[in-house]
Automatic annotation (TrEMBL):
Matches recorded under InterPro entries: FAD-bd_oxidored_4_C (IPR004113), FAD-bd_PCMH (IPR016166), FAD-bd_PCMH-like_sf (IPR036318), FAD-bd_PCMH_sub1 (IPR016167), FAD-bd_PCMH_sub2 (IPR016169), FAD-linked_Oxase-like_C (IPR016164), FAD-oxidored/transferase_4 (IPR051264), Oxid_FAD_bind_N (IPR006094)
Single Gene Ontology MF annotation: FAD binding
Keyword Nucleus recorded: no
Residue span(s) of domain FAD-binding PCMH-type: 48-229
Name used for this protein in its record: FAD/FMN-containing dehydrogenase
Organism: Thalassobaculum litoreum DSM 18839
UniProt-listed GO biological process terms: respiratory electron transport chain
Family according to the record: Belongs to the FAD-binding oxidoreductase/transferase type 4 family.
Signal peptide from the UniProt entry: none
Record key words, sorted: FAD, Flavoprotein
Cofactor: FAD
UniProt keyword Nucleotide-binding, yes or no: no
Pfam families to which the protein is assigned, alphabetical: FAD-oxidase_C, FAD_binding_4
């Protein structure tokens, strides 16, 4: 089976299937006019627009199942879509074959919330921020936190195994999942929703669909674990002289805090400058400029934990040892939000600045500073006058490595070098035992890197799984493979 091959399907069969899909969904459940479907066919960055016969907007798992079954019978490809906030061309149809988009944006219910069991069940179209709010109302925390949490969804974050800001403490999206409900390529529903912590009954099949980017089925609902809600939270922006100092600070902060650090973000000065330039309302939280900054957040569910005292002790010791040169501790929720906004708006600020590539990479936490030094040396050697904006989740080793076009370089010349520079960063990550894709997935953009840096035995096993579950290759074709 060639999972990348476009299908050859009789036009009559396609037309009949589309007609039946419309009947299944009802008048409010589908979009067909190009102007209506455009946002569902356009990548978040805006540079790629796919083609789709229809955008299906089912409101139940039953409808998803019936739609997928009809597509399976007619050989129509299916691309599932959540909030469409991905960055690797994974959530829009990109292959030259008859396709539809199945948007889960009408499946937004929280089906169950059991505070005593620290669990909830939500449909795939439920926005992450909605989950967080529902959990908070019963004194619980849904720990996944992302810059796009106001638009990213349960299904999308699980299909891409999203990471975000709190991975250092709570893990990626994968670690939040207790069970899944998934519509398989032939329309069969995999009924795996349960909220058990211990269920030792064979293969953990839900793991097949987490991070699979919709290539094995459509996640329609998920059972998620919850945590005790933080009663205390402390946030600070600290000036550090170097990434090496930040790395030492990270280890010490985890030790002194009793491992209550839930986020540890590293940013160069350029992050502050870009945010203030392009995003209204951003202010510099520290008077004296620094080459590097750390955003550290600590949280605890214990009301008797002296979290402020711990943070002040970390700050003070780091100042004495030269790891920190200045800093500010948030004194209100408003100030905390202002500090976090600098970090969370980096993708948008970078998009508005233009002329850059951003590599989503990871290396072992202990080697982040070393990687940054070698990557900078390589970039400056290859591109005179290059501008770098390298920021990210230092606490879990994930750096968003931004390379911006030198001012002296023409757009044409930059266009010829972009791919090469991205390849060089990926190659360097491989030398460090890292990953070319830390949290955004593979999609259609990183397929060559996947084949280049993934052991052949792993590629072959993944292809075998794909062939077994989706032998006709109709689920999100052109992604991963």
């Amino acid at each position: 089976m060639n999972v990348d091959a476009p299908s050859s399907v009789p036009a009559k069969a396609i037309a009949e299937a589309i007609s039946q899909i419309k009947q299944v969904l009802g008048d409010k459940g589908w979009l067909e006019e190009p102007t209506d479907t455009l946002k569902y066919r356009t990548d978040w960055r805006g540079g790629t627009v796919g083609e789709a016969l229809l955008v299906a907007r089912p409101d139940s798992t039953e409808q998803v199942s019936r739609v997928v079954r009809l597509c399976h019978g007619a050989g129509i490809a299916v691309t599932a879509q959540g909030g469409n906030t991905g960055l690797v061309l994974g959530s829009i149809p990109t292959e030259p074959q008859p396709s539809i988009v199945v948007s889960l944006d009408r499946m937004m219910k929280i089906r169950a919330l059991d505070a005593d069991n620290f669990a909830l069940v939500a449909e795939a179209g439920c926005v992450i921020q909605t989950l967080q709010q529902a959990a908070a109302e019963v004194g619980r925390l849904y720990p996944l936190s992302l810059a796009s949490e106001g638009s990213s969804t349960v299904g999308g974050t699980l299909s891409t195994n999203a990471g975000g800001n709190n991975t250092i403490k709570f893990g990626n999206a994968r670690e939040q999942v207790l069970g899944l409900e998934v519509v398989l390529p032939d329309g069969t529903v995999f009924e795996g929703l349960n909220t058990l912590r211990k269920n030792n009954t064979g293969y953990d099949l839900k793991q097949l669909f987490i991070g699979a980017e919709g290539t094995l089925g459509i996640i329609t609902a998920a059972a998620m674990r919850l945590m005790p809600a933080p009663k205390l939270r402390e946030t600070a922006m600290l000036s550090v002289p170097t990434p090496e100092a930040a790395q030492t600070l990270l280890s010490r902060a985890r030790e002194l805090s009793g491992d209550t650090v839930i986020a540890f973000e590293l940013m160069p000065r350029r992050c502050i400058d870009l945010a203030m330039k392009h995003i209204e309302g951003i202010v510099d939280p520290i008077d004296t400029p620094s080459p590097w900054y750390v955003l550290i957040e600590m949280a605890t569910s214990s009301e008797i934990d002296d979290l402020r005292g711990k943070l002040e002790a970390i700050f003070g010791e780091a100042m004495e040892n030269g790891l920190v040169t200045d800093g500010v501790i948030a004194e209100s929720e408003t100030q905390r939000a202002q500090i976090w906004r600098i970090r969370e708006e980096q993708a948008e600020a970078g998009r508005r600045e233009g002329g850059s590539i951003s590599c989503d990479v990871s290396v072992p936490v202990s080697r982040v500073a070393e990687f940054l030094a070698q990557a900078r040396e390589m970039c400056e050697r290859e591109l005179e006058g290059v501008q770098l904006n390298t920021f990210g989740h230092m606490g879990d080793g994930n750096i968003h490595y931004g390379i911006r076009k030198p001012e002296s370089m023409s757009d044409a010349a930059w266009g010829q070098r972009k791919g090469d520079m991205s390849d060089r960063i990926s190659a360097l990550c491989a030398e460090f035992g890292g990953s070319f894709s830390a949290e955004h997935g593979i999609g259609g953009l990183k397929r060559e890197d996947f084949r280049r840096y993934t052991p052949p035995s792993r590629v072959a096993l993944m292809q075998a799984i794909k062939a077994a579950i989706d032998p006709d290759g109709v689920m999100n074709p052109g992604k991963i493979f």
